[in-house]
Every structure is written in C-alpha cells, then in structure tokens.
Write a structure and sequence with these properties.
Helix 2 links the parallel strand 1 and strand 2. The chain has 2 domains: about 55 residues, no CATH class; about 50 residues, no CATH class. It contains 3 helices and 2 strands; from the N terminus they run αβαβα. The protein has a two-stranded parallel sheet with strand order 1-2. The protein is about 50% helix and about 5% strand. By secondary structure, it is mostly helical.
C-alpha cells in the first residue's frame, strides 16, 4: 500500500476512535530489515493527532526464533511480550484517566 494511503488510513482510524472519546495508543514497529519507509508514519501521526506513541514494541522479537511462529510473525510468547510492553506504557495513563473521572479500573 502506498505511504500516503497508509498515513491517511491510520489518521482516519485515530480520528474515529478519538471522536468517540477513546484514548489512542499507536504501537511503533520497524518492519523493514534494512530500511522501513513506513515506520515514521506511526510516530508522526501520533504526534499530529495527539495519540500516545509507543516505540519499537517488536524490538528483539523478530530476531529471536523462540518468539516467532514463522519467519515473519511472532508466536504466543512474542505477542505476550508485545502486550506487556504496551500495557507497561499505557497503565499509568489509564490510572490517571480513572483518577480524573472517578472510575476504578486499573
């Protein structure tokens, strides 16, 4: 998919979620082996639209055979590590949101 279309589609997803009051976290990941022309789109879109950016959630996963199900996809342990990294970053934001709204969740 062309970069411009990827950027447009990601921005649309972010805007729709925000329009319904949701917090958006964008997980950054480097997808190319040597270069990755798409990687900057995620961070730039987060900055532009006020979403929370979490850099490099897949770091070390695709280079570790114990964390992959095939040459290009994480396995359960790889996805678990990604989820832990994301949770670690957004948990304080969720706690603050709960504090501000008086809810009790995290």
């Amino acid at each position: 998919m062309p970069r411009a279309e990827t950027r447009k589609n990601l921005a649309e997803v972010v805007r729709r979620i925000q329009a319904h009051g949701g917090m958006v976290a964008i997980a950054g990941m480097r997808l190319g082996i040597l270069t990755d022309e798409f990687s900057p789109i995620y961070e730039e879109t987060a900055k532009e639209l006020g979403a929370y950016y979490i850099p490099q959630v897949m770091q070390g996963i695709l280079t570790d055979p114990k964390l992959k199900s095939d040459p290009i996809h994480p396995n359960g342990a790889g996805y678990r590590l990604m989820a832990q990294r994301i949770a670690e970053k957004i948990r304080p934001l969720l706690r603050e949101a709960d504090r501000l709204t008086g809810r009790r969740g995290f």
